[in-house]
Amino acid sequence: xxxxxxxxxxxxxxxxxxxxxxxxxxxxxxxxxxxxxxxxxxxxxxxxxxxxxxxxxxxxxxxxxxxxxxxxxxxxxxxxxxxxxxxxxxxxxxxxxxxxxxxxxxxxxxxxxx
Amino acid sequence: xxxxxxxxxxxxxxxxxxxxxxxxxxxxxxxxxxxxxxxxxxxxxxxxxxxxxxxxxxxxxxxxxxxxxxxxxxxxxxxxxxxxxxxxxxxxxxxxxxxxxxxxxxxxxxxxxxxxxxxxxxxxxxxxxxxxxxxxxxxxxxxxxxxxxxxxxxxxxxxxxxxxxxxxxxxxxxxxxxxxxxxxxxxxxxxxxxxxxxxxxxxxxxxxxxxxxxxxxxxxxxxxxxxxxxxxxxxxxxxxxxxxxxxxxxxxxxxxxxxxxxxxxxxxxxxxxxxxxxxxxxxxxxxxxxxxxxxxxxxxxxxxxxxxxxxxxxxxxxxxxxxxxxxxxxxxxxxxxxxxxxxxxxxxxxxxxxxxxxxxxxxxxxxxxxxxxxxxxxxxxxxxxxxxxxxxxxxxxxxxxxxxxxxxxxxxxxxxxxxxxxxxxxxxxxxxxxxxxxxxxxxxxxxxxxxxxxxxxxxxxxxxxxxxxxxxxxxxxxxxxxxxxxxxxxxxxxxxxxxxxxxxxxxxxxxxxxxxxxxxxxxxxxxxxxxxxxxxxxxxxxxxxxxxxxxxxxxxxxxxxxxxxxxxxxxxxxxxx
Lengths: 114, 577
Description:
heterodimer; A: rod-shaped; B: alpha+beta; Penicillin-binding protein 2a (Domain 2); Beta-lactamase; 2 domains; seven-stranded mixed sheet; 34% helix; elongated
């Protein structure tokens, strides 16, 4: 492999780009039209794959959202069931038949605190 | 080298054919993609995009438990289990699991349904989430679940006729459910989205729409579950003692117009509305069954006369047990308290003649003139709002009727009858509301069964609504309260808790028929109040049965007394200072 070396000596570069490479490499390889076509086709394929990946990921969010919705719905159902159970356990009929209620008696007399 | 095909050569023909086919393809693609573009876009959208209804939750209904709201009507998601008999493969295992898990929820003979030559058979209904999960665990092929929301009543049949129910079509009917159906239902939401083959909504698609549902309102009733339970119990016991088939009561806070209890016996459980064979049971008689008020109206008549300053409790009249009005002679039901007596005595013995006399004194003293009739109508109808729907938030409220003196039937005879409660139709809630204004100093509150609405931050209370604050004067109100207290304490001593303010008026109403009045049926009623320094509750009780005669003092008053004495304890009232 061979290369050409060109060196620039402008004052501006010396001042402003002191630490930059000042050497340019020019490849001797020349690509023909077939190679260019293949490269472009490959680039298009890669871009297509990237697009597909992103599109699939987006639709994947739909499934994720659906799963979360289902989970929320299920938890809400469980919450509602528990609330109903609580309401049944604190219903008047349940309380009246509880052991605590059975032990209660009517006060004989009542005094009022002034 | 330049490649040239020979004219007519096979290669040239092949090239032409290829070009032709390519041209046809291009033409066809042009037609499909350019000319028919919109058509196919729409077709694709119709196939890929689905619209889903996001159902709004029906509002729950709360009641008061003292100072705190508690749930009276709730929502529960239950499941219907269905099968596709053509695809099931484990029939025996399915039958066994359903028997074990679903128990009484399975349909009768569901085993045979699995052999049917159909694609959809319901096997069990109203399964809970836990039951569904247990069946789902088995992963049976051909078995599916459908979620259904149903109303749940933790307190059973408590206040059933106030609540109403939600029918099979999801519509609220009767009671509060019927009256507030639209507000309770809320507004369904909408999801329009591109879906996959399983109808799972995907986030792609520029036309996706999501409108969130607006859940229904959750009203908090003014009904106190403890008072309601007590009243229902008292009515059931009263019905048992008297043999009455219809017993009703309303308990109202006279200082706000809020209904604390409203009950009828018999009643029904809204959760089992489909088991009720007599649809009359769905009616709330306290608002939908007008009746002749009977002698309880005498307190209103006395208030009218006192407010117009034509007669007061200790004023006198000459009672002969009979009084002539036009061509009719009106007599007292209870006879013998004759001579010069006070209107207080007339109230105590419920003497019709005394109240006809009051009507006459509103006129020229001898006749129930047009002016007297106008005054009575103004007080009964316009001030106490009898004979017109109150606007209480319950379905099927009846208006009743009070005939105006300007109408053909509004003559002196009718108005003489109206002075003791005949010839006019009212409902119990009208009587309780008007009576509240009578005993609270003259303020008519809009009767209501709603205390407020439940929000995420707790109950948002609704203020009591005053419809008129000068129905009668304070002094008139105090005078009639004292009259009713005296009438009760002297007529029925020792039945109330000592030291409290209680009073009321009995009523025995005749039942109108197509030919006059029934000779066998009477309705017993009692309308009274209780409290400490001021009336804190108003109770109206009504007892009736077809073919039976009931009296206010013998049948309705004991129920009033039972509830009233209990209310004093429940409200923690201190004895009158």
